[in-house]
Amino acid sequence: MGLIYEQILRVVACALVGAGIGYEREIRNKPAGFFTFTLVSIGSCLIAILQQNLANDTIAMVQNDPSLLGVISVDQGRIIAQVVSGIGFLGAGTIIHNRASVKGITTAAMLWMVAGLGLLIGTGGLYNYVIAGVTTVIILPLAFYARKLTDRISRTKKVQRIRIVFDENAEKQLFENLASQGVIVRKTYLMNKTIMDGRQLKESIIYFSLPKTRKFEDVMNQISMFEFVVEIEEA
After folding, report:
1. Widest Cα–Cα separation across the chain
2. How far apart are CA 22 and CA 234, in angstroms?
3. Which of 132, 122, 113, 118 minimizes the C-alpha distance to 39?
4. Do residues 35 and 97 make contact, with C-beta atoms less than 8 angstroms apart?
5. DSSP-assigned letters across all residues of 161-186
């Protein structure tokens, strides 16, 4: 009976770990959030427990009937390998590809990691519990503050990217405005040209770096105020 209670506690622990990490994704309005992470963590735990119980049943059967030795066996790595592969497909579903941008990679990586935590806890053992606990303690603060830390460290070095649709006749005015804000344009990539309401529109991806005194949101807001800008978004 002691093993049953321990396995129940493993499921509860996985629910808490998955919910804690999923909460960070939920408040950031990501494709997979609180409930998804909780399910992945618990599901991985259940599969690890299933594998352990199958192995225990096999050992018990062999002890009761030694003639079965070598006839039946449980591959203790196969089930876990299938879980890792399956979570890969689930993570791929959270990745959104839109034109030149890809979003959701962090969420996919965290889903994969939560599955690993679930397998650790579900398999049991003091070392596994400690590793899972320490990993969660490290990951949660990083997940909450990673964006702020990244912005501080790489604000002047990071190359920003926007997709913009604008009147081609006002292209000089657009880049003059960027220059007046201290923005350094690294390169531009022409995506499409169309004609709308008699205007020749140009759709481009612009790569640029920001000065220390400017924020990305400020640059976006100032550019979007021009009448010749039809669409603008972070790419």
Report:
1. 87
2. 25
3. 118
4. no
5. EEEEEEEGGGHHHHHHHHHHTT-EEE
Query: What is the token pair recorded at 132?
Result: 């899972």
Identify the weakest region by mean pLDDT among 112-121, 137-146, 160-169: 137-146
| Residue appearing with tokens 């299938």 | 82
Q: Residue 70 has which token pair?
A: 């070598």
pLDDT in tens, 38-61: 878 887 887 788 777 777 767 676
Owner of token pair 């965290």:
110
Are 120 and 128 a contacting pair, CB within 8 Å?
yes
Q: Strand 199-209 and strand 184-196: pairing? A: antiparallel
Burial of 8 (0-12, 13-18, 19+ CB in 10 A): exposed
Helix/strand/coil for 91? helix
Token output for 10: 């493993």
